[in-house]
Design goal:
The complex is a heterodimer of chains A (about 500) and B (about 140).
Chain A lengths: L1 H10 L2 H19 L5 H8 L8 H18 L1 H7 L8 H12 L3 H33 L5 H18 L4 H14 L3 E2 L6 E2 L13 H20 L19 H6 L1 H16 L5 H15 L11 H17 L1 H7 L5 H12 L6 H6 L1 H21 L2 H8 L6 H20 L2 H19 L5 H23 L6 H4 L1 H28 L1
Antiparallel strand pairs in A: 1-2
Helix pairs in contact in A: 1-18, 2-4, 2-18, 3-4, 3-10, 4-14, 4-16, 4-18, 5-6, 5-7, 6-7, 6-14, 7-12, 7-14, 7-15, 7-18, 8-9, 8-22, 8-24, 9-22, 10-20, 10-21, 12-13, 12-14, 13-14, 16-22, 20-21
Chain B lengths: L1 H24 L4 H27 L11 H21 L1 H15 L5 H22 L13
The chains are: A mainly alpha (about 500), B mainly alpha (about 140).
Chain lengths: ~500, ~140
């Protein structure tokens, strides 16, 4: 009971409440702007959270995440332009509804569906997370090492379209994580006699570069000089009757379960959850042909599914240190900023903070209903009148100021810039960015634990795979790495 | 294009991995073993990607940019911005880049641009210098 009081008093303090509210509003704005996405927004936000209380920082992350996932539905419905990749499925029925003059109704359904999906996901996080965390009490250094390896392999293999490039990116991330002083022996590695490299590459500097610069360059490439006209963004008032809302309940339950399932799986994201939910709603419908032509259930399924992925993706992130998606990887980064090591120990060492973050994921899901109402959505839609080219330098300046304030070093700006250019090229040649970030996050944990395990076993390498739990995780990791090879062989056999 | 890109990409990663492994081999004891193994694994994946590109890469076009001119302008002005921040100070350099980059990309509404710049720089100043009290690179005029 004491921990519950502690969590609630922390979450409902003035700072975290203001952070959640402000970030939810900002999140809807960001989601509503095509070209900006929650990953970029959270990457830009992270440098600012250094000097904040952890629950204020995490409340902002939760608000931006949940808010932007709903915000993505606004341009998806009004313009058939998904504000975030997860809102692609929302365009299928949302835009035809808007063309029929039912944009406000579609947005209202999207708002309710997002809020309910997010709430279900947060409840899953609050119930499954602690159980999984308790199961990890039996873990030693060898198990922690294999958990890190499993996380790397799963993100490397499952994110992106090419497993070899994913694993290559993961290894690059692990290697970048070794730059600086070795924490066990104190030896300087890959520092090239530069004092500023002794503390290693700053995770947030790399994160901001990798995730914020490529979309800025993409915005510049599209060179939107005008923005949208007021007429294009006009919304007629609409009411959604309770009888119709009740009809969505089976869709919401189904989509929530799908979203939660997808969220827990490492590598899958909100877009997959939305597509699966949409297809499930279509299959279960009495009138599947109406999907894609403006069926409100299609909007409800897609929006509920993509928001149900949000908090669920934090389950493996917070309990095992394996993020379910890129935003979860950024949350791990936010925890590291505040000196908290993501992974199994987190629940045991900082229960009030983890509990507080879970409650914040729940509250910010519900806040969508408050900040995403009809009037608010009308206001948010107006941000699309802003010409895209004005956003390009403003985001660049925000990146620079955010990165500079971390360490007060100009060299960090250049590292960010180089990381961003590399990220832009990597995206173009199908090298996923998430494994690089995960390598930077999990690399030190993997190295310290494997060396600790070998010290305990006096150099006996077999000890890493002979303990029952570590053997299981090692086999699962190997299976994951072999998965693309095995599936390629089976594809070739079928063709022959 | 795809084939050539993969061969270049794989070769670059393989070279990076070998360089890291050689460098790490010089580090004492266990602190060198881990990065050395990672370097070798990285070069292995690099060779795999490059080799695959040689054997079964396709020659379909996959351009690195959608509009090379605009990418070049953005990257060049971005680099100039970072270079002048320590010289001119954060706010002056930022105001210049917020004005210059949209114009370079074809934006021709000076009043809107000036207004947007003033509002944006004002917000950044209020948040970072007033509310958060973060020290930023000093303005050049303050040194006189």
């Amino acid at each position: 009971m004491d921990i519950v009081t502690q969590v609630l008093s922390g979450v409902f303090a003035l700072g975290p409440v203001a952070a959640m509210l402000g970030a939810s509003i900002l999140g809807v704005f960001i989601g509503a702007l095509p070209g900006l996405n929650p990953v970029m927004a959270i990457a830009l936000l992270l440098p600012l959270t250094y000097s904040m209380e952890p629950l204020v920082a995490l409340g902002m992350v939760a608000g931006i995440y949940n808010g932007s996932m709903y915000g993505g539905a606004i341009p998806a419905i009004l313009l058939r332009i998904p504000g975030t990749p997860a809102a692609i499925a929302t365009t299928f029925d949302g835009y035809p509804m808007a063309q029929r003059g039912e944009a406000a109704r579609a947005l209202k359904i999207a708002c309710w569906s997002s809020a309910l999906g997010g709430t279900a996901s947060a409840i899953a996080l609050m119930t499954i997370g602690p159980i999984l965390a308790r199961a990890t009490l039996a873990f030693g250094p060898a198990e922690y090492f294999w958990i890190a390896m499993f996380g790397m392999a799963s993100i490397g293999v499952l994110v992106g379209s090419d497993a070899a490039k994913g694993l290559m990116a993961a290894t690059l991330g692990l290697l970048l994580g070794t730059v600086g002083l070795d924490q066990l022996s104190g030896a300087a590695r890959f520092t090239f006699d530069q004092v500023w490299l002794l503390s290693g590459l700053d995770l947030i500097v790399i994160l901001v570069g990798l995730y914020a610069l490529p979309p800025v360059i993409a915005l510049a490439e599209s060179a939107d000089l005008k923005g949208l006209s007021a007429a294009q963004l006009k919304l007629e008032p609409a009411k959604v009757p309770w009888s119709e809302i009740r009809g969505f309940v089976p869709t919401w339950i189904r989509s929530s379960l799908i979203g939660i399932g997808v969220g827990i799986l490492p590598g899958a994201g909100g877009n997959i959850a939305a597509f699966l939910s949409y297809n499930a709603a279509k299959s279960a419908s009495d009138d599947p042909d109406s999907f894609g032509k403006g069926n409100p259930a299609g909007v409800a399924a897609a929006e509920c599914g993509n928001n149900a992925d949000n908090a669920a993706s934090m389950i493996p992130a917070l309990t095992l240190g394996i993020p379910g998606n890129v935003v979860a990887a950024l949350v791990l980064g936010a925890l590291l900023i505040h000196g908290l090591q993501p992974g199994p120990q987190l629940f045991h060492q900082n229960p009030s903070l983890v509990g507080g973050f879970m409650v914040q994921m729940l509250l910010t899901s519900l806040l969508i209903l408050a900040v995403g109402g009809a009037a608010a959505t009308k206001v948010f839609a107006q941000v699309q009148r802003l010409p895209g080219v004005l956003l390009v330098p403003t985001i660049l300046v925000l990146m620079a100021v955010g990165v500079y304030v971390i360490n007060g070093r100009i060299v960090d700006l250049w590292i960010m810039f180089a990381a961003g250019l590399a990220g832009y090229v990597f995206e173009k040649v199908n090298v996923p960015l998430a494994p690089i970030v995960l390598g930077l996050i999990l690399g030190p944990m993997a190295e310290q634990n494997v060396r600790r395990a070998l010290l305990i076993s006096r150099g006996d390498v077999t000890e890493l795979v002979t303990r029952p739990i570590s053997a299981v995780i090692a086999l699962a990791t190997l299976g994951l790495i072999l998965l693309p090879i095995l599936s390629a062989i089976s594809r070739r056999r079928r063709r022959a | 294009m795809e084939r050539r890109q993969d061969i270049v990409l794989g070769t670059v990663f393989a070279a990076l991995g070998i360089f890291a492994a050689v460098k790490a081999a010089a580090y004492s004891g266990a602190s060198g073993t881990y990065p050395m193994v990672l370097g070798l694994v990285l070069s292995g994946f690099g060779l795999l990607v490059a080799g695959r590109g040689v054997v079964r890469g396709r020659a379909e076009p996959r351009p690195l940019t959608n509009h090379t001119g605009r990418v070049f302008i953005t990257v060049a002005i971005g680099a100039v911005y970072l270079a002048i921040v320590p010289i001119l100070g954060f706010y002056t350099a930022s105001a210049l880049v917020v004005l210059a980059l949209p114009v370079a990309l074809g934006f021709r509404q000076p009043v809107l641009l000036a207004l947007a710049t003033a509002v944006f720089i004002g917000i950044v100043w209020a948040v970072f210098s007033i509310v958060l009290e973060k020290p930023l690179p000093t303005e050049f005029r303050q040194t006189f």
